[in-house]
Design brief:
The protein has 189 residues and is mainly alpha-helical. The chain contains 9 helices and no strands. The longest helix is centred in the last third of the chain and has 24 residues. The protein is elongated. The protein starts with 10 loop residues before the first helix and ends in a 6-residue tail after the last helix.
C-alpha cells in the first residue's frame, strides 16, 4: 500500500496541486475517462509526469485526490433552527450529490485509489459537516445523536445503495432514517 500523505501544501507545491487538479477537471470534461493519462495531465498542468508520479504515485491516486478535494463541503450546512431539520436538509443534499453521475464518479475514483487514507478522509469530511449540525443543536440545548449514529444510520445506507444497489435510497427513506436517528438521540448539553 502506498503510504504517501498528501498534506495541504503551500507555495510551489500548492500551485502544482492546483494546476494538476484543474488539468484533471478540464481533461475529464473533454475526453473519455479511459483516455485520461498522467502524461496528458502533466502536459496540461505544465509539470512533468515524474512530478505527478512522485507526488501522487499513480493515475488512480491523482483522480482520487481530485475527487476528495471536490467532495469537501464549500459551505456550512443549512441552519434551520432544529437538529432534525438541519440533518434532513443536509442528508437530502448529500443524497442528491452522491447519487448524481458526478458524485458516483468521485466515489469510484476514491475507492480506486491504492491509498486507504483517501476513503478515510471522505469520512472525516462528512463527519465534520454532521458535527457542525450537532454542535448547533447542543448550543440550542436540543437532544442530538452521536456523529457515528448519523454516519451508521444515514450516511452508510446512502453510500452503500449508491455504490452497490441499482436503486438508490429515496428521499422518503432518508427522511425516515433521519427521524429514527434523531428519535434515539440523547441529551448532550
Amino acid at each position: 500500500m502506498n503510504s504517501r500523505i498528501t498534506p495541504r501544501p503551500g507555495g510551489r507545491s500548492a500551485r502544482v496541486q492546483a494546476a494538476v487538479h484543474r488539468a484533471v477537471q478540464e481533461l475529464d470534461a473533454e475526453m473519455a475517462r479511459a483516455d485520461l493519462t498522467v502524461p496528458l495531465i502533466a502536459e496540461r498542468a505544465g509539470v512533468t509526469p515524474s512530478t505527478i508520479y512522485r507526488r501522487w504515485g499513480s493515475l488512480a491516486d491523482v483522480l482520487s485526490d481530485v475527487a476528495l478535494d471536490r467532495l469537501r463541503a464549500d459551505a456550512a450546512p443549512l441552519e434551520t433552527g432544529s437538529v432534525r431539520d438541519d440533518l434532513q436538509a443536509w442528508a437530502e443534499q448529500y443524497l442528491d450529490e452522491m447519487t448524481s453521475p458526478v458524485g458516483l464518479a468521485m466515489m469510484h475514483d476514491v475507492l480506486a485509489s491504492n491509498r486507504a487514507d483517501m476513503s478515510c478522509q471522505c469520512s472525516v469530511h462528512v463527519a465534520a459537516q454532521i458535527r457542525i449540525i450537532l454542535d448547533r443543536g447542543i448550543a440550542r440545548q436540543q437532544p442530538v445523536p452521536e456523529v457515528d449514529a448519523v454516519m451508521d444510520a444515514v450516511v452508510a445506507p446512502i453510500i452503500y445503495r449508491a455504490l452497490f444497489n441499482a436503486t438508490p435510497v429515496s428521499r422518503e427513506q432518508v427522511r425516515a432514517m433521519v427521524d429514527n436517528c434523531v428519535a434515539q438521540a440523547a441529551v448532550q448539553f
